[in-house]
Every structure is written in C-alpha cells, then in structure tokens.
Amino acid sequence: MAGILKYLAGVETPKTLVFGITGKQGRSKSRLMRKFGTEIIAGCTPGKGGQEVDGVPVFDSAAEAVNAFPQLNSAVLFVPAGAVRKAAIDAVDAGLKFLVLTADGVPTQDEIVLKEYVSTNDSVYLGPNTVGLLDTEGYLFGLIGGSATWARKNYRPGKVGVISRSGGLSQLLGAFHCRPNLPGPRADGSYGPLWGEDYPGLSAVVCVGGDPVPGISMLDAATAFEKDPRTEVMAVYGETGTTQENDLAEAVMNGGITKPIVVFLGGKFTKAGVSQSHAGAMIRNENETWKAKQKALLDAGITVVERPDAVFSAVLGKLKKS
Question: Which of 56, 92, 109, 222 falls between 20 and 30 A from 182, CA-CA?
Fold first, then answer.
C-alpha cells in the first residue's frame, strides 16, 4: 500500500536527495532517516561534489544528482535559513516532486517567492520550520523520533492521521496514539486507561510547520488523509495566526473533507500582534484569533478540545463511530 506521499505529491516510493548531507545535522539526520527506512540515494552540497557520506554520493547541485540518478523524486533540505530559497528552487528545477524544508527563520519574502515559484511547477514542499513527515509504511523526512529505534518503537501502523503546526505536538500526538494502555481524561470526566493493548496507531504524521507562509497547508494535508484508505480519523494541532484552520473548517462545511477530525486548538490567550512561539501564530486580523477559529471549526461540526491529552479520548470516540 502506498503511503501518504501518494496523495500529497503523487510519489509512490520516495527516492531521496539530501541537501546539506555533509553538514553535522544533515549527516546525523540522514542516518536516522535511512535507519527508519527512507531510501537516500544521493546528497547535495555545493563545492563538495565527488565526496561520499556513509556511502552516499554527493553532488554540487540537484541537477547533477538527478542526471546521475533519474529515479530521484524527493528531497529534504538541511541547509541554513538564508540558503533555503536557492536550494529549493534548485530542487524544483531538477524535477523533484516533494521537498521538506526543515530550517527555522526563513525570511517571509523568500517563502512568498518560493510558494509562487512552486505553484507554476509540478512540485510541493513541506515547511519551512518543520520537523517533517513520518509514514508508518516505512519512510521519514526530517527530525521526527530522535532515533530510528525510538521512532520504530513508538510510531506504529494504524488508523490516525496527524496534522500539526508544531514540531513537539506532531511527535506527541503521533507517538501517544501508539502507546498501549494510554491513560488520559475520558469523555465521562474520569481519568484512566483509554484503551488496552489495542491502540489506534498511525497512518502518518505531517508537520506543516510554524511559519506564516507554509508550503503544504493543513487543508492540503487533510485532503491527502481524506484519500488515504488507512486513515479513519485525523488528529490536528492548530493555533492562532494564518487562516489554515478556517480553510479546513470551510472544506468540511462544504463536504470536501468527510472523515472525522479532532482539533486541539492552542493560543486561547494570545493577544494580537504577539507571536506565540511560532512566527505563523501571530494574530493579524480577527479571523486569525482563537475565538474565530474555534467558532469556524465548531460550526463545521469538528470536535475541538482545549488540552492536548483530551485529543486521545476524542479520537477514540470517533473511531468507535467510524
């Protein structure tokens, strides 16, 4: 069965190029990704073509890598924020269909230019400012899990698709759905194990990132999970800033998304003009406030909870009904 990338980017089996593979983070995270199951075919660092990292050949550009390995279709970028725009355009021009931009602090102007550029090409990208994507079919892009051993143990195949604007919440909402005998607040107000050994499990985790101009949005991710036959329920972390949650609510209201969704909506006490940890969480108009988003989601029939550990019992309730 194909993973979530089939529905996000039309990629059945990812064949991956790693930008910045010769750097400390690129090298260590490439090892994590490979141990989890990601097929990394080549690396790219300008000026270091001809080298190898753990047996992976390094090229000066994406075009050179694709010329040597035409099967390449995806890339993850471990490059400084100021280099993201140029590297991503290099990847798109080389014909790569799916990119993950992990860097924090990418200039908003660069994000706008990149989003416009990619919209005219047959590519999509996740991020910037994202821990990436993990699919329990056996591939990982980015930073999720900490170690491959931990990730394989704590992210197990199942029925829940996770979408998050937060790296930390991406990992929490993902791993806890795979934890046997998970305790938490129940729908009846009591506290205790929500399920036994038969945990819900995961289809995939998609962190759309915390920046104001994301590539793949929450709605894009939800549309992919809607098509994914493994996914029965979506668990979502949303927050103030941008209109991503509003767009998701509108799609549900219009019937474009029909699978049940549970949202933990953060930022209830965020004030306008103040960034809440993420650049994209800053409230710029009334529609981006917590109250407006909560109303839009509830009006669409989406379940909204106000604490992260309430997500799990709500998801369980949706699974029993689906």
Answer: 222
Q: In this model, does residue 257 exceed pLDDT 80?
A: yes
Task: Give the model's pLDDT for residue 276.
Answer: 62
Does 137 map to a domain? Answer: no
* CA distance linking residue 113 with residue 309, whole number of Å: 38
The DSSP annotation for 55-80 comes to: TEEEESSHHHHHHH-TT--EEEE---
- Name the residue among 205, 149, 147 with its Cα closest to residue 176: 205
Q: What is the pLDDT of residues 67-88, one digit of tens each?
A: 999 999 999 999 999 999 999 9
Whole-number Å distance between alpha carbons of 264 and 311: 7
Q: Alpha-carbon distance 268 to 196, whole Å?
A: 32
Q: Is residue 138 part of a domain?
A: no
Pairwise CA distance, residues 49 & 77, whole Å:
16
Same domain, 32 and 118: yes
Q: Which pLDDT tens digit goes with each residue over 125-149?
A: 999 999 999 999 999 999 998 888 8
Please check whether residue 144 lies inside any domain of the structure. no
Mean pLDDT value across residues 226-253: 96
Residue 108 has a CB neighbour count (10 Å cut-off) of: 12
Domain that holds residue 103: 1-129
Q: In Å, what is the CA distance from 161 to each residue of 177, 264, 305, 315?
A: 10, 14, 17, 10
Q: How far apart are CA 204 and CA 185, in angstroms?
A: 24
Q: How many domains does the chain have?
A: 2
Give the residue numbers marked as catalytic.
278
From the number of C-beta atoms within 10 Å of its C-beta (0-12, 13-18, 19+), residue 37 rates as: middle
What's the CATH code of the domain at 245? 3.40.50.261
